[in-house]
Design goal:
Strand content: 15-25%
Strand order of the largest sheet: 5-4-3-2-1-9-8-7-6
Largest sheet: 9 strands, parallel
Length: 209
């Protein structure tokens, strides 16, 4: 398993987040994401009752060779739980030095959250150059444009309030990947999501060659 978040995200313009769903529904939407071409699926574990859903999606992902990550990882205990369950990566809403350090020690790809230039600088000092911009809908596309100047070596995953209607604006503004949740459960948005995956994914793979 790669310990490099950049490698995980290469050619992946869309990541799926399955929050507050029971195990069966989580697997259903994860399967829908995989069928669309979304390889990266995250299941937040903000509370213990979410762990069974993560476990179910990990099992389903293993059958299809798909990496599954745990989200809303804010404690070292959650990191260790995630490792025991066999996650491929972890995601956090904020930047926690202890969580970042433990994930590095365990060779587990970690995507920390940031919302300010100071947090970005701190993340870079910790060795993190792929960051979750959260909440993206509050920050707005212009934030991504503004951050490209002082931080050209940083890649951002736009998370929070993203759907098919505004995903393009965030990608055009400089986000490497956008994270969606409810859009997977909306048939009206799925065609737009598929189009983003087809066009952006191909571009990213070619740029990575």
């Amino acid at each position: 398993m790669s310990t490099d978040v950049t490698s995980l995200l290469r050619g992946q313009p869309v990541m799926a987040i399955l929050r507050n769903m029971d195990p069966q529904r989580s697997v259903e939407l994860a399967s829908k994401a995989w069928d669309l071409g979304i390889d990266l699926v995250e299941v937040p574990i903000q509370s213990p009752d979410a762990v069974p859903s993560l476990a179910a999606v990990i099992r389903a992902g293993a059958e299809r060779g798909k990496p599954v990550g745990s989200g809303t990882v804010v404690t070292e205990e959650q990191v260790r739980t995630s490792v025991k369950m066999g996650v491929a990566f972890t995601v956090a809403p904020g930047l926690d030095p202890e969580v970042v350090s433990l994930c590095r020690d365990l060779q587990l790809p970690h995507l920390p959250g940031v919302a300010t230039p100071s947090e970005i600088q701190s993340a870079i000092r910790m060795g993190c150059t792929v960051l979750k911009a959260f909440p993206a809908s509050v920050l707005g596309p212009e934030w991504f444009k503004a951050m490209r100047g002082p931080f050209p070596g940083v890649s951002f995953v736009a998370t929070g309030g993203i759907d098919a209607s505004n995903a393009g604006a965030f990608l055009e503004a400089g986000a490497t990947t956008i994270a969606i949740g409810s859009a997977l459960d909306d048939s009206r948005q799925l065609d737009l999501v598929a189009e983003i995956i087809a066009t952006r994914g191909t571009q990213d793979r070619h740029n990575g060659d």
